[in-house]
Amino acid sequence: MILPKNHRDLVIYYSRLGDIYCKQNDHNQALIYFKKAGKIQEKLLPSDPLILAKTYPRIARTCVNINHYDLAMQFYDKTLKIRKDNLLPIDKSIAVRYHNIAKLYYKQNEFTQALKYYNEALDIYKKVLPPKHPSLCQIEEDIETLKK
User: Fold this and answer.
1) What is the C-alpha to C-alpha distance for residues 41 and 39, in angstroms, rounded to an integer?
2) CA-to-CA distance for 147 and 118, rounded, in angstroms?
3) Residue pLDDT, tens place only, 86-126
4) What are the residue ranges of CATH 1.25.40 in the chain?
């Protein structure tokens, strides 16, 4: 049986192909498949944006791996907006997105912006994680590195 080009099962297929290409360091090919999965999700699942909030970071990370920082930022921003619109303001996944954005700004030597987003992530992490949690320790270390 051949599936229609926008069938929901193709999202899983395309996502897995993207993962395989990422593991093979073929990020351009991975990006093609992650975008295909995202396009189908946008058409089929507009009532559940949190599903897209799982696909968009994969696209963003892949863009970072091929130095397409502007496109990566667009997808991180989309993810952050979806999560902020649909979750509590102190949800850990929002902090993770702030942290991703901070690291992207850091890669681009935009240290003021990076610090702003690191601090946003830190504020949430301090509210939702125990004091010695690895994510909290990592972001504190990232901030210290940035300040040097």
Assistant:
1) 5
2) 11
3) 888 889 999 999 999 999 999 999 999 999 999 999 999 99
4) 87-148
